[in-house]
Specification:
Blueprint lengths: L15 H5 L4 E5 L5 H14 L4 E5 L9 H16 L5 E5 L13 H21 L4 E5 L2 H5 L5 H9 L6 E5 L5 H6 L2 E4 L20
Parallel strand pairs: 1-5, 1-6, 2-3, 2-4, 4-5
């Protein structure tokens, strides 16, 4: 896509402006670092132009204090108090299901994930937000806690102009198929390969 020019123009009856402004469904997947980081970078752009942002984290522990959450909460206050940017909501949908020690049964976690998706589905139908980050959402899809086809149907039928970014490893092929933008992060090297643990400011 040299200089932002599409390689082909579809015969869809839309004007260039209308096609440019279509809502985007993006998927950040793969084994490399940076999937959530890239999604939050997009959310920053959305906030800056006044798009209402909502983040839903599906795997990271509710007790884990991530830097992005602290920043976005401050951006939300900046909007509320001074009218700058846009509103921000941040929701943690579980107690940590991947690398943290889990409390409760798998059925409990599956039910929490299903409840989280049901809430997102309602918000999409109501057009509550402009930009959604569904962080680590590929995992409940992979584990069968949330039905992939139902998710695809809801996302494809979402009304209005709502952007959605989904992150996580092993994105289901059906989700990849329907997405407008798919990026696969490929790990080349990682400090953990050399026995170094994650550090504040880099990993969270």
């Amino acid at each position: 896509m040299p200089q932002g020019t599409p390689l082909q123009v579809p015969d869809d009856g839309l004007s260039t402006r209308a096609r440019r402004n279509l809502p985007v469904l993006a998927v950040h997947t793969g084994d490399g670092k940076g999937k959530s980081t890239a999604a939050f970078g997009m959310a920053l752009r959305a906030w800056n132009v006044g798009l209402d942002v909502a983040v839903f984290q599906f795997v990271k522990s509710a007790k884990w204090k991530v830097g992005e959450e602290a920043v976005f909460r401050q951006l939300g206050r900046l909007h509320d108090e001074h009218g700058i940017g846009a509103a921000v909501q941040w929701h943690k949908m579980g107690s940590g299901w991947s690398w943290t020690r889990r409390s409760g049964s798998e059925d409990d976690h599956a039910a929490a994930a299903a409840d989280g998706w049901a809430e997102i589905s309602r918000r999409l139908a109501e057009q509550r937000h402009d930009f959604y980050v569904l962080d680590e959402f590929t995992y409940p899809l992979k584990w069968g806690w949330v039905d992939v086809e139902e998710v695809v149907d809801v996302l494809l039928a979402r009304p209005g102009h709502q952007h959605v970014v989904i992150t996580g490893r092993a994105a289901p092929p059906r989700l990849v198929e329907v997405a407008d933008l798919v990026t696969e992060m490929t790990k080349v090297k990682h400090p953990m390969d050399a026995g170094r643990k994650g550090q504040q400011g880099i990993e969270w």
